[in-house]
Design goal:
heterotrimer; A mainly alpha (about 290); B alpha/beta (about 375); C mainly alpha (about 270); A: about 290 residues; MetI-like fold; 2 domains; B: about 375 residues; alpha/beta; D-Maltodextrin-Binding Protein, domain 2; 10-stranded mixed β-sheet; two-stranded antiparallel ribbon; about 15% strand
């Protein structure tokens, strides 16, 4: 049956079920193109142009110079330290993120709302305050007699503080929409709770968990404010990559700073993309 | 129904909004660092911030300072130098060391004759410059003097008195990172100078620096974060400007100041920028800073005055030195002054000479940093 | 109550307690250490008040921009899937993963007087760097995906059923958007807004670099807090930090509780 033409404008009125299901609320072309150009301008000013400037500066001395800047001893030490601490923090926060989300969704106790809000606090607290506070609480004058300043553990803990929201909030929504049906079915068939978790729950959670981990790891690579103070910033020993980049910009070594920044970005984006892809791949399997 | 062109309307709406937003922001942006003759933009290194608060308050009380407003930016000397070079509004700049000034001259922000402003603008004559014990420091363009000192825990429990104590086993030194802090450069050069003062060769002095750097337990990005780390319990000795140490003591922090027998003279340069020379309020402020009144304000905050009259009146507040040669100057370390010393010690690229390959000829500290914390 | 459930609860509470609650408590304790009176008078510090005003201006500019962009992009990604939107979906998370130092660096490279666009702007008398526009751009950058990340999953979940019904009944696209679409994503968007707000309020590194940290002119609240810590004014710094935390927490509490209740209600309806 041919589509009817609405008399007031030239848009088709969907009548058949096929037409009703198609064209998910398509807005007219002018809105779409206007919105598109606005979005593109916005993105360009905020993201694309600065990135272009970064790449130009990083490779201003040619590929050889870029390679030298990235593989200098101090750069390699900084990158290695950052990678290891970020990885450690990401692993811990994957486990703890899942545990926290579980407690928030599956458990019920007084103060659960407080816990839920606390998770977002690292977003709001300026990193400089986090740095000063951690130094006071977990430094040489710690009231708890725990001193982790100047060590890779201190760096990892500071990173854990900053990245916990990412893993918790990635898993939490999925956990909320998960029903007990499949799990109780498995349980009635005789599977132990651990087995149920491993075979039924975890596969469904894995994609979002991986995305959260990827995001946490990528974020961890670039953390500066809260980490630089607690690390004591000894070059080659406890200097993180972001601090090394900052010292290069201070000495007006913009080319080298941009080069190391590009290396760090490649690592961060590479992680992000691969973890998201892995998550998407696994989610297709889970379904 | 009237035929309207949705496409153009949407586009027009979008572009008008965008332009209005940008214009609004642009309008607000020109408010920062307004170029009026009654506003002075002051840019300085981080430690001197509180001093300028006092100077500006005192200046505003004078007839010349009526209706004058100030816009202040303080931060790490290198960062502020780069910012001014990149367009940060500045009329008066007070930086940590002379290389920063040279950078601004190259960037065209400060006139190349900045050092002579002291006599041409402020009317300070050589004969009125300070005489520190038997030595005169006639360096033009310097607004305050200080020396590198040790800051230790209150009561000096470990009895740290001199530079060799910093490389003893168990010494834990805190100093800012020389790549990001002017203060750190002064600190390390002072250690080097102290070795030359007792007759060491350059190589032996470099070897001392290597030990010193290996004994560092923290190298925070700036002088103030180094102080914060030390006060937070890290290390047992902090290297710093004498004036910063005095400020910390006055703020009630539990520290003791140890002035080593030999140390380096810290000279902080000041200049009117290319915009500042045409700003009567800025010029008046510059004159005030070099006047007896201004120098007294600075002296009361722990800075060694560059004016003979003020120094004589306030010298009792400061540690004395046995002989003139106990205070080294950068000019003694390198006859080109900071222009020569900066690349030799702090260049980010390490180059070796043909003869002695133990230590580089450029970037000595950069090379030695790989031993940081290895003691 | 099983033992494993209790154990899990204890582990999580200890972890979050040591990592987040304790530092927060420390901040509040420090700011009240001289009594409530001192706290209140510290709030009237002129430098901090100027910083507050500036921060509010930044928020009023940056948050709406990101909301519009966030909701628009979410709709685009979910409703018009294509290869471009798949790339966009990944790219949109990028700002969350970038170091603030790098953000500051690249904005400086692009917009400083010596930078790409900066030199052109300077010729027209525009100063992007070391002023409000730079702070807004940096704030927008670091919070770019926060609204989208909340809205996208919800849009996918909700589907287009209601909108198509409305459209078939003759409603125009704008009406559909505001009455149907917005209603279904209100709480997700609002939660995204509160996250954006918290992030913009708390950003330090990137803003430090691009603003020039001009006291009482381009010093946001976080920069003011940092400056206080640098100048032996720890107490003032902690007061500022408490203020910031309280503001963000209040907003987050209100919105997450509302969203929590909304989801519970939603579960009954679905």
């Amino acid at each position: 049956m041919p589509a009817l033409l609405d008399s007031t404008n030239s848009r088709e009125v969907p009548t058949t079920p096929k037409q009703l299901l198609r064209g998910s609320g398509r807005s007219p072309k002018y809105v779409r193109s206007g919105a598109r150009s606005l979005a593109v301008t916005y993105l360009s000013v905020i993201v694309l142009i600065p990135f272009a400037a970064l790449l130009t500066n990083a490779f201003s001395g040619g590929l050889g110079q870029f390679w030298n800047d990235v593989t200098s001893l101090e750069s390699l030490d900084a990158l290695r330290l950052t990678l290891l601490c970020s990885l450690a923090a990401a692993v811990v926060n994957t486990v703890m993120g899942l545990a926290t989300a579980w407690v928030l969704v599956r458990d019920r106790f007084k103060g659960q709302g407080v816990l839920n809000t606390l998770i977002d606090l690292p977003f709001a607290l300026p990193t400089v305050v986090a740095g000063v506070t951690f130094y006071a609480l977990y430094g040489p004058l710690s009231p708890l007699h725990i001193t982790i300043t100047g060590t890779w553990i201190g760096i990892t803990v500071a990173i854990m503080f900053v990245t916990l929201p990412f893993t918790v909030r990635s898993v939490q929504p999925v956990l909320e929409t998960l029903t007990f049906t499949a799990e109780s079915a498995a349980a009635t068939l005789g599977a132990s709770p651990v087995r149920v978790f491993r075979t039924v729950t975890l596969p469904v959670l894995l994609p979002s968990l991986l995305t959260g981990t990827g995001l946490a790891f990528a974020r961890a690579l670039g953390e500066y404010g809260s980490v630089v103070f607690i690390s004591n910033n000894l070059p080659y020993r406890t200097e993180v990559a972001s601090s090394y980049i900052y010292s290069l910009t201070s000495s007006n070594e913009n080319g080298a700073a941009a080069a190391v920044a590009v290396a760090l970005l490649i690592l961060a984006l590479g992680t992000l993309v691969s973890f998201s892809a892995l998550g998407r791949f696994l989610s297709r399997g889970a379904k | 129904m009237p035929v309207f062109k949705p496409k153009t309307t949407a586009r027009r709406l979008v572009s008008t909004t965008l332009v209005t937003c940008l214009m609004a922001m642009g309008g607000v942006s020109t408010l920062a660092g307004a170029a009026t003759t009654t506003n002075v933009n002051v840019v300085g290194y981080s430690v001197v911030g509180p001093a300028y608060k006092a100077l500006e308050a005192a200046f505003e009380a004078t007839p010349a300072g009526q209706n004058v407003t100030f816009t202040n930016t303080f931060g790490s000397s290198d960062t502020e130098t780069n910012n001014v070079a990149k367009g940060l509004a500045a009329d008066v700049v007070n930086l940590s060391y002379a290389s920063n000034m040279a950078t601004l001259v190259t960037a065209g922000k400060v006139p190349s004759t900045w050092a002579s402003q002291e006599s041409t603008v402020a009317g300070v004559k050589q004969s009125t410059k300070a005489a520190l014990s038997q030595t005169v420091y006639p360096t033009p363009g310097i607004v305050t003097d200080s020396v590198v000192v040790f800051i230790v825990r209150k009561g000096n429990p470990l009895n740290i008195q001199d530079w060799p104590d910093l490389i003893k086993s168990g010494a834990q030194v805190v100093t800012p990172n020389p790549a990001t802090s002017g203060s750190a450069k002064w600190n390390l050069l002072a250690g080097y100078a102290a070795q030359l003062a007792k007759g060491d060769t350059t190589t032996q002095a470099y070897s001392y620096l290597k030990s010193l750097i290996s004994h560092t337990v923290a190298q925070p990005s700036s002088g103030s974060t180094a102080m914060a780390a030390f006060l937070g319990g890290t290390g047992n000795v902090l290297l710093d400007y004498e004036d910063d140490a005095i400020a910390a003591q006055n703020a009630g922090d539990a520290i003791s100041i140890v002035t080593p027998p030999t140390t380096l003279l810290i000279e902080n340069p000041i200049a009117l920028t290319t915009t500042g020379v045409n700003n009567p309020a800025a010029t008046a402020f510059y004159q005030y800073v070099f006047s007896t009144a201004g120098q007294t304000v600075l002296a009361n905050l722990g800075y060694r005055s560059v004016l003979k009259s003020v120094w004589t009146a306030t010298s009792s507040k400061f540690a004395a030195f046995k002989k003139a040669s106990d205070i080294y100057t950068v000019a003694q370390l390198n006859n080109q002054g900071w222009t020569g010393i900066d690349p030799t010690f702090f260049s980010s690229s390490i180059t070796y000479g043909t003869k002695n390959r133990t230590y580089p000829t450029q970037g000595v500290v950069t090379y030695l940093e790989q031993f940081a914390g290895t003691a | 109550m099983t033992r494993s459930r209790l154990l899990l609860r204890v582990i999580v509470l200890t972890y979050v307690g040591l990592l987040i609650a304790l530092p927060l408590g420390f901040v509040f304790e420090r700011s009240l250490s001289h009594g409530l009176g001192a706290f209140v008078s510290a709030l009237r510090d002129p430098a901090m008040d100027d910083a507050l005003v500036l921060t509010l201006k930044v928020v009023l500019l940056a948050v709406p921009l990101n909301v519009i962009f966030g909701i628009g992009t979410s709709l685009w990604i979910v409703r018009h899937p294509s290869r471009l939107t798949r790339v966009l979906d990944i790219l949109i998370d990028v700002p969350l993963a970038i170091s603030p130092i790098i953000v500051g660096l690249i904005l400086e490279l692009a917009y400083a007087q010596s930078g790409w666009f900066g030199s052109a702007f300077a010729a027209w008398g525009w100063h992007v760097m070391f002023s409000l526009p730079a702070i807004v751009i940096a704030s927008v950058f670091v919070s770019l995906p926060l609204v989208s990340r909340q809205v996208i999953p919800l849009l996918r979940e909700v589907g287009t059923h209601q909108e198509e019904t409305a459209q078939s009944l003759g409603a125009g696209p704008v009406r559909v958007f505001f009455t149907i679409t917005m209603r279904s994503i209100t709480w997700a968007a609002a939660y995204g807004v509160s996250l954006t707000l918290a992030r913009v309020l708390g950003e330090y590194g990137a803003v430090l670099i691009v603003s020039g940290n001009i006291s009482q002119v381009t010093q946001t609240l976080t920069l003011n807090i940092g400056a206080n810590f640098e100048n032996f004014n720890d107490f003032q710094g902690f007061v500022g930090a408490s203020l910031l935390s309280l503001a963000s927490l209040a907003l987050l509490i209100v919105l997450s509780t509302a969203r929590y209740r909304e989801r519970r209600r939603h579960d009954y309806l679905v």
